[in-house]
Description:
Strand order of the largest sheet: 3-2-1-4-5-7-6
CATH architecture: 3-Layer(aba) Sandwich
Number of helices: 8
Structural class: alpha/beta
Number of strands: 7
Largest sheet: 7 strands, mixed
Order of helices and strands: HHHEHEHEEHEHHEE
CATH class: Alpha Beta
CATH topology: Rossmann fold
Distance between the termini: 54 Å
Number of domains: 1
CATH superfamily: Vaccinia Virus protein VP39
Amino acid sequence: MTTLPHRVLRALEQFNAAHPWDHNAHYHPWILRQLPRRFGGALDVGSGSGDLARLLAGRAGTVHGIDADPGITVRARELTPPATPVTFTTADALTGIPSGASYDVITCVAVIHHLPFTEALAVFRKHLAPGGTLVVLGLSRPATPVDHLLGTVSIPLNAATGWLKNRGRTAPRPVSMTARTRPADMSFPEIARAAHAVLPGVRLRRGLFWRYTLVWDHR
């Protein structure tokens, strides 16, 4: 009996490896729903291969993406049509934002758990224009019964979604999933407490597929 969960998880890992899909991109439509129809400048922190930055460009005057990985930054530029109002720079998320820059929208997807959390939120707040919106999609360490329940529910949904998105066929790993990552070390309650201390009125929600969302309006 004790080996069954391990066998099930191993089988799911093998299935997911054959039918991969981007959990972060799954949330892109939700991110766009949190934003105005039109806005001026946007900053995408940890822009990766540029998928979200290119979506933001459909609403923004300009979009600037920053990522610490030079290789993925080059790939983002290659994937972006020349006429798209998006620039990509290799830069540190905390120190690489241009001094004095202000943005109407700041997004940060699956990156903030690599950073000092409170410091990162303070930097984003500093560069968010009055009336602007910050949207973070993050990872948290499972620590509560609710976390474990959502994780359990996500396991079969993850497999089903991978099967449907790939139409049952074995698929290569998406470019957006090639970046190295590490597990989150903060639990959702810890994240919520720290976020409320830096961003009064912030809205946080646990989500499926081992993600949480954070939205803050700079009023």
